[in-house]
């Protein structure tokens, strides 16, 4: 699936900790209705079988909304169920190896924390970078917070799109303006909210202002 920079504006990463009796599928659909432009399935607690079932269902849902759908880390499952792509961290499979497995037409995202990591990921075939954490975050306690200068250095060093991740919400997203970002990736700012659709809509407006500031 080909994608544009605009598809990375509001990148929603799933987390079933906040299901509250709903299915993940239902929550993702609410985010899509609110305007999420990209979905990543990231479920650390699910076994392979249930992860695969969720992935197949949510891929079909995203296709209906014409929104890219990628799998976190698990290249084998992404390959097996024909996801639009995969997102890998620095400790996961290296971007060049992912590209070799998935082929030329899949989306590959890579987490980067330094200019060196960013340049290497781009050179090895990454389509976009996730950079962070940009604010303190509860979803990853072992991650250092990057300062704005480093974010700017990364966006200026590479030609591929860059999104920020980590502790982002509608109240602080505009602090990221001027760093050359194409969008943000969030978890709790969408999926922990009471009204997911409205929260997504409001956040998307704030991200749009940040990107275009």
From TrEMBL:
Metabolic or biological pathway, per its Swiss-Prot or TrEMBL entry: Cofactor biosynthesis; thiamine diphosphate biosynthesis; thiamine phosphate from 4-amino-2-methyl-5-diphosphomethylpyrimidine and 4-methyl-5-(2-phosphoethyl)-thiazole: step 1/1
The entry's Mg(2+)-binding residues are 73, 92
Database matches in InterPro entries: Aldolase_TIM, ThiamineP_synth_sf, ThiamineP_synth_TenI, TMP_synthase
Give residues annotated as binding 2-[(2R,5Z)-2-carboxy-4-methylthiazol-5(2H)-ylidene]ethyl phosphate.
Answer: 137-139, 167, 187-188
Which metal ions or organic cofactors does this protein require, according to UniProt? Mg(2+)
EC class name:
transferase
Instruction: Name the Gene Ontology molecular function terms of this record.
Output: thiamine-phosphate diphosphorylase activity
Its recorded reaction(s) are: 2-[(2R,5Z)-2-carboxy-4-methylthiazol-5(2H)-ylidene]ethyl phosphate + 4-amino-2-methyl-5-(diphosphooxymethyl)pyrimidine + 2 H(+) = thiamine phosphate + CO2 + diphosphate; 4-methyl-5-(2-phosphooxyethyl)-thiazole + 4-amino-2-methyl-5-(diphosphooxymethyl)pyrimidine + H(+) = thiamine phosphate + diphosphate; 2-(2-carboxy-4-methylthiazol-5-yl)ethyl phosphate + 4-amino-2-methyl-5-(diphosphooxymethyl)pyrimidine + 2 H(+) = thiamine phosphate + CO2 + diphosphate
**Enzyme Commission number(s):** 2.5.1.3
Any idea where the Thiamine phosphate synthase/TenI domain is?
A: 10-190
Q: Which NCBIfam families match?
A: thiE (TIGR00693)
Q: Which PANTHER family has this protein been placed in? A: THIAMINE BIOSYNTHETIC BIFUNCTIONAL ENZYME, THIAMINE-PHOSPHATE PYROPHOSPHORYLASE
Q: Which family does the record assign?
A: Belongs to the thiamine-phosphate synthase family.
**Protein name (record):** Thiamine-phosphate synthase
Q: Which organism is it from?
A: Dorea ammoniilytica
- Which gene name belongs to this protein? thiE
